[in-house]
Amino acid sequence: MDGILGLKKVNSHCSISEMADFDLSKLLDKPRLNIERQRSFDERSFSELSIGFTRGHDHFEGIYSPGGRSGFDTPASSARNSFEPHPMVAEAWDALRRSLVFFRGQPVGTIAAIDHASEEVLNYDQVFVRDFVPSALAFLMNGEPEIVKNFLLKTLQLQGWEKRIDRFKLGEGAMPASFKVLHDPTRKTDTIIADFGESAIGRVAPVDCGFWWIILLRAYTKSTGDLTLAETPECQKGMRLILALCLSEGFDTFPTLLCADGCSMIDRRMGVYGYPIEIQALFFMALRCALPMLKHDAEGKEFIERIVKRLHALSYHMRNYFWLDFQQLNDIYRYKTEEYSHTAVNKFNVIPDSIPEWVFDFMPTRGGYFIGNVSPARMDFRWFCLGNCVAILSSLATPEQSMAIMDLIEARWDELVGEMPLKIAYPAIENHDWRIITGCDPKNTRWSYHNGGSWPGLSIFSHNLLILMISYYNEKDLQLGQHHFLLSPQIIVLVAFNREVELEFY
Question: pLDDT tens-digit profile of 446-505?
Fold first, then answer.
């Protein structure tokens, strides 16, 4: 079965329990894996993305392709897999199934957390759009696409609701951040309550949820081979409404999306207002996913033209202005300021003295990453894991940039991973900066939650980066042994999984 972004799923030749012993030598000595590599976005001709390009050709190599169940709760799985499943895997599937939410007898998603020990449930008993995506990918890989289809259709239906916060009406294409199913045992009825930001802490609309919906629709299409769902008038309209929101013309001078703080996975005040890397990477990936799914009718062609133009501009902007490596850091350090000309080098008038001291120690001579934010006179040099992972998976990063990101992770493994799963951001904000930037948020104290906390849920992206990088090494005839850490993320996460208790992080 194909893996995410069209990469072939390769069966392991060793057991998970063997991998947990951290013995990488056996894995490194195996024959080279034969994995097809998706061409990067730069390697494709943009003419292929033109309106005249035939509908049958797949612009975006699939997130999944049709295949049998890959789970560990089915008889077929034991015959196909060469190893016995670790008990942890069965426990994970059991927890996932206990988190299922049903609407009129049909599963429509999974709740954010099943930690019954907590007295304050808040909204963790709801189905979050972004949080369901990793669960949805697991169900697709396990040959259970119905729940994903139900989720896509139900959230699409919620998109059509009128959305108001006080006396202000939200855009028609906005997707809900979450929804809750209320069961009335007396009347035997189910009711859905959706939250578009009017009930959320901070009252921020989820900009990323529309992008996740398009990405998941593409994943469902590639996994099942079912093109009919994406081609329905309802799904076509839903995609166009989302795209209309983010492709609308305004006062922006950049192709990136201007966002408020707390509008994505980091849904609390963390100083990510402006043009956060996570939103830009998801925006790019959603545009690429929507491109082959839009029909070539009158309405669809108009959006296809706008998408192609935006992809050109967005990829150029991100790769040139958000990218930071050792050489670029030296260039910024020597920037001249107050340049008034279209030929200005310091286009955003960034003051070199604003570069934080930790960056010079953090940046290796070999490696690089997309920084958190770029706006007039401001660069947020923090590392954000999800944005950089999605940048690689969507080919927003060039092959050279992708390898540089992995080089950085290897060089700064202790800071970004250590003995725990991946950190959502680095470094943590503390002391006076924490008071100013987070507003003294007690939940986002240093190295907690969004402020540098460990999020095992990010492991799905590191796992797919592992496959992507192995395929790249094979194609370039490089030695995988040069980067032992490529095999380490999944092992670290597997070991740490049993020790973690805060289920919302999954």
Answer: 999 999 998 766 766 666 665 666 566 556 555 544 555 555 544 444 334 434 434 344
End-to-end CA distance of the chain: 24
Query: 323 is written with which tokens?
Result: 């990218």
Residue 383: partners with Cβ closer than 8 Å, 6 or more residues away: 362, 369, 371, 372, 416, 425, 426
Closest C-alpha to 384, from 463, 275, 491, 488: 275
The CA–CA distances, whole Å, from 193 to 122, 152, 161 equal 14, 16, 11
Show the tokens assigned to 66: 């049709």
Q: Is the pLDDT of residue 346 over 80?
A: yes
Distance CA 94, CA 115 (A): 14
pLDDT, residue 164, reads 78
Structure tokens at 389: 């992972």
β-strands 373-375, 378-380 pairing = antiparallel
Look up tokens 């966002």; give the residue: 259
Compute the Cα dihedral for 442, 445, 451, 456 and give only its sign.
negative
Alpha helices in 252-318 (DSSP H): 277-293, 298-317
Beta partners for 383? Answer: 426
**How far is Cα 445 from Cα 435, in angstroms, rounded to an integer?**
10
Give pTM, 2 decimals: 0.80
**CA–CA separation, 280 vs 211, rounded Å?**
10
Alpha carbon separation from 347 to 253, 254, 379, 416 (Å, rounded): 12, 12, 12, 30
Q: Where do we find the tokens 């934010």?
A: 373
- Which tokens hold the place of 276? 């956060």
